[in-house]
Task: inverse folding
């Protein structure tokens, strides 16, 4: 049985919903305001997070910065969004191909033309390059701004809200009630009583979650547990008799009185490239489930794998996702029919966000087609 501190070894593992923001804005844009971004046709929180927050899986940070959005799937042209870390009046990043790219042919390296003006700066491999207007043509000055700060593949919020798959053998605490009368759901700054063994003290942080759908391993049919939906974080403020009084400090969805409670530990952040994992080489597992059944949005998916720490999986491990190549039968009327089992086909890559003993949570970083439960994942590094 896992103890109270099971989450510290979790390496926890998008999110409240695996990359919502799948629904795109439908109308034309209107001019934006200083310090914000004006939604235009085709925008999604997923896409905007990839452009401004380093990785699409960080979309919950963008949603959290815009409390006026009640549903992350629904953003409309003309709305103004606050972009975390973007200063007021800062211009939007140029679209791909405008002001950035490879050197053009006149720079002397035979590259493709960018259609830029001679004195216009552009970015190449993390460096700003200014082309000189004077002769000789093609001379460049390279200004190296130094190494950029490494950004994690996913933020803490993104890892937490991706959820995880676990059984019912987790030792948990319970929400006993609230100072408010007849309350069963709670949000930011509201207080709850935690029924514990008396060990909680002011300053402790807790995590709340609840079980969702049951997950079965393809092939064997054995139960892997439930998809656990992380609902929020609590900060213990004081003790009230036999209970700890805690405040909701983060709410990824509504925190319910029936939610389970465990001590919280920060998840391990993942930086690419992740180190190889020799002990995992050649091992494989199944895609056991998809978060929110988003298999039709392959670039936006959180998937749960039927392979975990017992097999040596660690956060940051990258798996190839493959489907069966199927079977083929040939019969030309002259020879006996022949049957063939075709090779598996790679359809994507997934990076592990968090690990449990028998399962792991991963994000699809590439997919050429919808990924479905029953596909296999292979570690080949």
Result:
């Amino acid at each position: 049985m896992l103890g109270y501190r099971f989450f510290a070894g979790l390496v926890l593992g998008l999110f409240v919903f695996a990359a919502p923001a799948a629904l795109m804005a439908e109308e034309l844009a209107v001019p934006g305001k200083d310090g914000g971004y004006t939604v235009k046709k085709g925008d999604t929180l997923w896409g905007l997070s990839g452009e401004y927050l380093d990785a699409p899986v960080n979309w919950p940070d963008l949603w959290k910065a815009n409390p006026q959005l009640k549903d992350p799937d629904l953003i409309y042209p003309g709305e103004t969004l606050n972009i975390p870390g973007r200063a007021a009046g800062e211009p939007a990043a140029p679209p791909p191909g405008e002001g950035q790219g490879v050197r053009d042919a006149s720079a002397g390296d035979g590259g493709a033309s960018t259609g830029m003006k001679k004195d216009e700066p552009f970015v190449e491999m993390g460096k700003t390059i200014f082309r000189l207007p004077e002769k000789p043509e093609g001379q460049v000055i390279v200004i190296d701004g130094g190494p950029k700060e490494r950004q994690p593949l996913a933020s803490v919020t993104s890892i937490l809200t991706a959820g995880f798959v676990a059984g019912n053998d987790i030792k948990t605490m319970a929400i006993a009630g609230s100072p408010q009368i007849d309350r069963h759901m709670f949000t930011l700054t509201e207080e709850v009583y935690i029924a514990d063994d008396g060990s909680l003290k002011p300053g402790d942080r807790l995590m709340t979650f609840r079980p969702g759908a049951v997950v079965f391993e393809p092939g064997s049919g054995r139960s892997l547990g439930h998809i656990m939906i992380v609902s929020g974080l609590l900060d213990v403020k004081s003790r009230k008799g036999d209970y700890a009084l805690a405040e909701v400090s983060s709410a990824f969805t509504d925190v319910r009185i029936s939610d389970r409670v465990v001590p919280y530990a920060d998840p391990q952040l993942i930086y690419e490239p992740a180190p190889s994992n020799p002990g995992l080489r050649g091992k494989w597992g199944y895609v056991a489930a998809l978060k929110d059944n988003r298999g039709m949005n392959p670039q936006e998916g959180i998937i749960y794998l039927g392979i975990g720490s017992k097999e040596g999986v660690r956060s940051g491990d990258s798996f190839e996702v493959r489907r069966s190549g199927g079977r083929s039968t040939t019969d030309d009327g002259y020879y006996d029919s022949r049957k063939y089992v075709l090779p598996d086909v790679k359809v994507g890559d997934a990076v592990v966000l968090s690990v449990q003993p028998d399962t792991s949570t991963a994000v699809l970083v590439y997919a050429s087609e919808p990924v479905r439960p029953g596909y296999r994942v292979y570690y080949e590094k």
User: Anything to note?
Assistant: Residues 105-143 form one domain. The first strand starts at residue 37 and ends at 38. The chain is about 5% helix and 30% strand.
